[in-house]
Write a structure and sequence with these properties.
Layout (H helix, E strand, L loop, with lengths): L1 E7 L2 H18 L6 E3 L6 E9 L2 H11 L7 E13 L2 E9 L1 H18 L16 E6 L9 H7 L3 E7 L1 E10 L2 E11 L7
Antiparallel strand pairs: 1-3, 1-8, 2-6, 4-5, 4-7, 5-6, 8-9
């Protein structure tokens, strides 16, 4: 199965970001043939992508993170950006505040240190950068996210959310897009960030 480790947004944050999607799509004047909005049920921050793993490998990953201890923490969803660059974007994303992003980086680092010890194929392939993907280019293409639009959202806080669960997610690729399901969850041990 195709798996990754991630944290989700609360329903209220999901609704806020869905509204932002509509706003950005209209402002950017994109064509739906070129740019696809990420479905709201698929909003998440990927902390570590592992790809195709066997059932037994998934069980090992579960065992590695089962006793992970972390406090719930607050993130502020803020700003807009694109990878690899605005003029040639494959994805557009929403970022986090510095403190929330740093806490998420630490959680990702804790996960990576546990899971990478399993062996080859369980390492992080690129540095973690906290971002919530809200648009993707269709069919391997690209799109343009104008710098004026990015500047218009620079420093703008969309909402605040509490991260209190870590999930191993399974990704099933379908013709209409991926379907994600949580196959294992680790809850925060204590309530922090409130």
């Amino acid at each position: 199965m195709r798996i990754f480790l991630a944290v989700d947004l609360s329903p209220s944050a999901v609704n806020t970001i869905e509204s932002l999607q509509h706003e950005v799509f209209a402002a950017a004047d994109w064509n739906q043939r070129d740019v696809k909005a990420v479905e709201k049920q698929n909003f998440h921050f990927t902390l570590l992508f592992l790809g195709e793993k066997s059932d037994s490998e998934v069980e090992i990953v579960k065992a590695k993170i089962s006793d992970l201890k972390f406090e719930s923490f607050t993130i502020r969803l803020t700003g807009l950006g694109a990878f690899p660059k605005p003029n040639y974007a494959r994805v557009a994303w929403v970022g986090t505040d510095v403190a929330g992003g740093q806490t998420m980086r630490q959680l990702a680092a804790d996960i990576v240190s546990r899971v990478s010890s399993i062996g080859p194929g369980f390492q992080q392939d690129k540095p973690f950068s906290p971002h919530l993907t809200i648009f993707r280019a269709r069919a391997g293409g690209h799109f343009r996210l104008d710098n004026e639009i990015i500047a218009g959202y620079s420093g703008k806080e969309f909402c605040t959310d509490i991260i209190d669960k870590l999930h191993i997610k399974q990704s099933d690729l379908t013709p209409s897009g991926p379907i994600y399901s949580n196959i294992y969850t680790v809850a925060a041990t204590t309530v922090g960030g409130r």
